[in-house]
Amino acid sequence: MAAADHAVLLPERDLYERLQLEIKPRARRVSLRVDVARGCIVLVRPTRCPEALIARFLADKRTWIQKQLVNMPERATLAHGTAVSILGEEHAIRGHDIAKRGVWREGATIFVSGAPEHLPRRLKDWLKVESRTVFTTWARDYAAQLNVRIARVAVRDTKSRWGSCTRDGRLSLSWRLIFAPREVAAYVVAHEVAHLKHMNHSPAFWRVVESLVGNMKAPRAWLRAHGGSLHRYL
Ligand SMILES: [Zn+2]
């Protein structure tokens, strides 16, 4: 263990206050998940599971839990006067008092009309539509390169994965990837489209992804390190 790990220790009480229990009858094992939206760590356990096993699991994961809590991204709101990064480009958010003009972009500024209290929801709805439009364009482009067919692209607010793909070409992506750098979002889209060639994570599959986006090390590392921060906007 690196010496730096000791610097992040939280008091015992804070640690356990920020653990939430979730019972999943079909879970095969005990696991942990970082929930940035709620600012906590979720312990997922099957219905029947010896308490001693859970205690041992928590003891083993203690340093990891500490680190996650200390490094938890600050929750943020999309509000007038704040900034948001969209596909790696900083945008200023401005409220606009002309009602019924909706949401629109001018250069690096996004205007949101209507009452300030509705701004976060309106902007989020707009970002969901925007993400679907952009990701659909990319997915169709990748599909054309691979000579495969996409049936539909949907965006969702998924917690445990960034994207998925069915055999018949239905792609599902997290709309929150729009807050990630462009090459990270593009990697996830390419990854899902590549599954239409290989429904597995074999070396052949990774070669297909690489043929679409080049080196994937950086985007994959970014997702591991910063993926949780995409959930910081409630
Ligand atoms: Zn995959």
Helix-strand sequence? HEEEHHEEEEHEEEHHH
CATH architecture of the largest domain: 2-Layer Sandwich
**Strand share of the residues?**
15-25%
Radius of gyration: 20 Å
**Number of distinct helices:** 7
Looking at CATH, the homologous superfamily of the largest domain is Metalloproteases ("zincins"), catalytic domain
| Oligomeric assembly | single chain
Spans where pLDDT lies below 50 across 5 or more residues: 1-8
- CATH class annotation of the largest domain: Alpha Beta
Structural class assignment: alpha/beta
**Strand order, biggest sheet?**
4-5-7-6
Number of strands: 10
Rough outline: globular
Overview of this structure, please?
- This protein has 234 residues and is an alpha/beta fold.
- The chain folds into 2 domains: 3-70, no CATH class; 117-231, 2-Layer Sandwich (Zincin-like).
- 37% of the residues lie in helices and 21% in strands.
- It has 7 helices and 10 strands.
- Strands 4-5-7-6 form a 4-stranded mixed beta sheet, with helices on one face.
- A hairpin with a 4-residue loop joins strand 9 (163-165) and strand 10 (170-174).
- The two termini are 34 Å apart.
- Residues 1-8 have low confidence and may be disordered.
- The structure holds zinc ion.
